[in-house]
Amino acid sequence: MDFEHADALNQAIRLLSLRHRARAASLLAPLGLHPGQEVLLLELARSGPMIQAQLSEALGCEPPSVTLMTRKLEATGHISRRPAPSDKRASVVELTDSGRALAGRVRQLWCALAEETVAGLPAETAAALPGILNALTDNVDTRRPRHAHGRRNIPATETRRDGPAGRGAGPSVDGATGRGAGPSDDGAENDGAENDGAEN
Amino acid sequence: MDFEHADALNQAIRLLSLRHRARAASLLAPLGLHPGQEVLLLELARSGPMIQAQLSEALGCEPPSVTLMTRKLEATGHISRRPAPSDKRASVVELTDSGRALAGRVRQLWCALAEETVAGLPAETAAALPGILNALTDNVDTRRPRHAHGRRNIPATETRRDGPAGRGAGPSVDGATGRGAGPSDDGAENDGAENDGAEN
DNA sequence: CGAATAACATTATGCGCATAACGTTATTCG
DNA sequence: CGAATAACGTTATGCGCATAATGTTATTCG
């Protein structure tokens, strides 16, 4: 590929990153949120309580980022953190009531953002975008599948395309209850976790 | 748009942003550069010396970011900064010899990055990507064209797609020599700048 | 001509990203 | 069983992004 085309592509990706994130920021600001935090709330709303390691994996970012974001969201009362019952290393993160309400509002603006993003694009182009973008992401993913040099022992066979939904395969909870709260839970949540597991 | 599709799109954009940037970081690290700095070097290599305001506009980022990046690149000897001869507010940024050499290496890895990014994609898809991505960017651009609330007085009629190449229309150098060094220059560069102007 | 406004770069601060290092806890291995 | 290894969350630090504020300089306006 010649430089001009390479530059056009790389710059397009860079500018989309900047502008999409900035637009998200402007939509999130009235909710008191910063870009990056919304996906954390959405993940907890979707998948329920989980340990931080699972969160960082689901979000595709490193543990210190999750540590700081959860700390701030806990401070604002939107999430709670408690030690995992069977693993003193781990803490379980869970939405509070206000966090669930906030996640609902995030869902709305998330839809608005996406609609705004693809406005004027042919419908079939818009529909194909996630797949195309994910293919690009897989190509440049430094963490996997080419060399899983991440600090967590992530199976190289796990495909990236599952994204947040693929978190159930996290090795840190192998042998535990599955995808519910991570290391362990009380009986009521066990039921829920097992049902999810059976779906897989 | 329903939430699932909206989420798929927004997450795809977010993850591509993260991973593309991380991959760029790994390629840039051996050169002692951080993501964001490469586009500054490439812009200077392409367009020649310019004041920082022009840089920030060309790069699509805010002036403090340029201030810090130029400071660091000046400290490593890759760029030089000097006060603009006819405007004491402005400083002209220019590649040094080592900066030009570095920009050459950035060009190479930039091509490699782009190729890696579109590997396995149909050629026509890859060719259409910059246009599609730029359309998305235009849709969510909070700075223009819907309301040019940026701090610089940017004409609302200027289209975003020109990107770096459209810098010549920067209002801050209206009435000056054009796109060369910004506020003013010596005779030799005046010739060059006027030639470029005629091209437009 | 002088006040008002705008442009320039900078500083301060906040943010989510990253890496590196660390201490504690859990698991594995010989 | 104990050493070695791995996992967890955290702290420290660096980075490019952003916004807000500032001081100086340049331009505009009445």
Automatic annotation (TrEMBL), chains A, B:
- Chain segments carrying region Disordered: 140-200
HTH marR-type domain mapped to chain residues: 6-138
> What is one Pfam family matched by this protein?
MarR
- Stored SUPFAM superfamilies: Winged helix' DNA-binding domain (SSF46785)
Q: Which InterPro entries match?
A: HTH_MarR-typ (IPR000835), MarR/SlyA-like (IPR039422), WH-like_DNA-bd_sf (IPR036388), WH_DNA-bd_sf (IPR036390)
SMART domains this protein is in? HTH_MARR
Q: Spell out the molecular function terms from Gene Ontology.
A: DNA-binding transcription factor activity
Biased composition, class Acidic residues, residue ranges: 186-200
Instruction: Give the residue range of the signal peptide.
Output: none
Coiled-coil ranges per the record? none
Q: Which GO terms describe its biological process?
A: response to stress
In terms of superkingdom, the source organism counts as Bacteria
Protein name according to UniProt: HTH marR-type domain-containing protein
Q: Which organism is it from?
A: Planobispora rosea
